[in-house]
Structure prediction request, 424 residues.
Amino acid sequence: MSRPQSASRASDVLAGVLSGGWRPFFLRWLTLPAAAVAALVIGAAIILVMGANPLTGYNALLSGAFGGSYALTTTAIKAVPLLLVGVGICIAFRANVLNIGGEGQIVVGGLAGAATAIALPNLPAFVLIPLVLLAGFVAGGIWGAIPGVFKAYRNVNEVLSTIMLNLVAVQLMNYLLAGPMIDKSESFKVVGRIPQTKLLSPSSWLPIIVPGTQLHLGVVIAVLVAVAVYVLLRRTGFGFRIRAVGLSPEASNYAGMRVKRTTAMALTLSGAMCGLAGAILVFGSISHRMVTDGSLTGFTGSDGYYGIVVALFGGLNPLWTILSAFLFGGLLAGGVSMGIALNVPYSSDLVTTIVGLVVCFVVSLDAMRHRSSLQTGPGVMRQLLTRRWQQPAAGSPADGQLQQPAAEPAALQPPDDGAREVLP
Prediction:
């Protein structure tokens, strides 16, 4: 963007603040930073109640997350599954469905990738690595398609179905890792039957991109996937249909879109992103095997739930979710250092508490922002019907015919400079 355009945009923002008051400006631009600051302030109060110094704790958190190459590497690796899950949540939210099944989808993605590596251990790396990642992607997509189809064609609540499938996934993992996929090598017979796979083929390990660190190729893959999803949602007809269905299924159906198919595909793609995260967790790990303690979090680290927070904090924009995932990855990675520095009871749960507070504030402030923009909704949908789509004529395809518009409705256009978009 040129300098005059930047100055013009800044002057427009200032004029909007002066003419419309601070409330719209706050709800649009300061909601998410305010949520983070409020959560940290309450976290500091909790640390004081626990008899420790908040400055000491937060200094240790920042050092553990960003204080050196090792800390930055740890943060980046921790951010990978958060980013992929968050991108999947962006897809689902844009279609107005909620994917709470990220934990189970991560697990089945890891299982599918591990099973592929075990079945085909002799393939070269340039074949096996894409294959195991694809297996995780497909398995997660299938696991997400199940609630997607139920939601689209039987109106089954996707929150309940995705949560119940998490329970199915953990039982499937425990069965496979304690039975058909368990490590049966001689070295583990002396320590008992640990529920884990054998050491996976070195040809399936994700390459290290910075020698001397654990920074693997999964970091690059996650960023590229986030950019690709942004392009999908903002620059393709399918992405437009997802956003239109999320804004109003009734108007989209009137315009000739296949609303049910789009809803099912949104949850399928969301699950596929989580499945890819599971495969990267396995093949980017230090142990290079899949292991469980009998619970979902023993493998996922609750990334399926933290990814929802990452997506919300990123404004449901895949590009902003990259930054959001890195920040939350630092929060989780630095939480270990903070717990050691504080040396107080339950300090390990403090980061979880702060993340939970961020969720509460983000959801509350987003509800305020949504109410403040309700009056613009009908106008947006009228533009959608009159300027973007035409009513399908008799005998036309069921999906409708996409017309070439003179200009996309302003509410559906991406920001000129990649700024965080206002949620519908």
Confidence is low (pLDDT under 50) at residues 375-424.
